[in-house]
Specification:
alpha/beta, seven-stranded mixed beta sheet, Rossmann fold, about 230 residues, about 30% strand, 7 helices
Length: about 230
């Protein structure tokens, strides 16, 4: 499906359409992030514009032990998001498929847990009180995104919160991070709602193109366990 600038802005905050980008597929994402990890870490916005949404997620995150357990999928370097969640008292488990990102996360947050793994088909065997896929899940193909909802459910504790970013309409887009082209995809809002419902999640809040958060399109849901 052709993707216009409005959708690209929603799917790729602060990115631009560029006709010079080389053709990309979802399979290019992991080696791309492995290659640009130090550059990405330098360029990553650390103003924590995500704070209001992270706080909202924590408000809906249940406490099943001494600390809230949060699974951060596509965790990157851990800064600023995982570091903020730890400041709020959570224990964060990061997952990233790019080894240099895992190394950065481990160096930045030595008291957190991090796994070198692909979120697709992830099976950690432990539940989490919140699952976060911020600016990561939308690098997957549409089919892989649909399949991820079973993975979300498999890692969700009772009434766990789930938060992820997407585009505001179905389609694919190529953006740019630093000097590298990156692939993005999105389902339609109705398709995300269907995937959430089929896997036992109820939508708490959906905000497309939030101007207070860099035009991110954000989903916050709760796991009901009924599916």
């Amino acid at each position: 499906m052709p993707v216009g600038r409005t959708h690209l802005r929603a799917c790729l905050p602060k990115a631009r359409v560029t006709p010079k980008c080389k053709p990309m597929t979802p399979d290019d994402i992991i080696p791309t992030y492995a290659r640009i990890a130090p550059q990405w870490a330098r360029l990553r916005n650390r103003s924590l514009m995500e704070k209001r949404w992270l706080d909202r997620m924590l408000d809906y995150t249940p406490l099943h032990g001494k600390r809230r357990r949060i699974l951060d999928l596509g965790c990157g370097s851990g800064r600023p998001i995982a570091s903020y969640l730890m400041e709020r008292g959570a224990h964060v488990t990061g997952v990233d498929a790019a080894v240099p990102m895992v190394d950065l996360f481990a160096a930045n947050l030595p008291h957190a847990t991090v796994h070198h793994d692909d979120m697709r088909g992830l099976a950690l065997g432990v539940p989490f009180d919140a699952i976060l896929a911020w600016d990561s899940f939308f690098h997957l193909s549409a089919d892989d995104q649909r399949a991820m909802f079973a993975t979300f459910a498999a890692h969700a504790a009772p009434r766990a919160a789930l938060m992820f970013t997407s585009g505001d309409a179905a389609g694919e887009a190529i953006g740019k991070i630093g000097t590298e082209a990156v692939y993005h995809a999105s389902l339609s809002p109705a398709q995300y709602e269907d995937c959430l419902a089929k896997h036992g999640f109820e939508v708490i809040k959906y905000t497309p193109n939030d101007p207070s958060c860099g035009d991110h399109t954000i989903w916050l849901a709760r796991f009901t366990g009924r599916y």
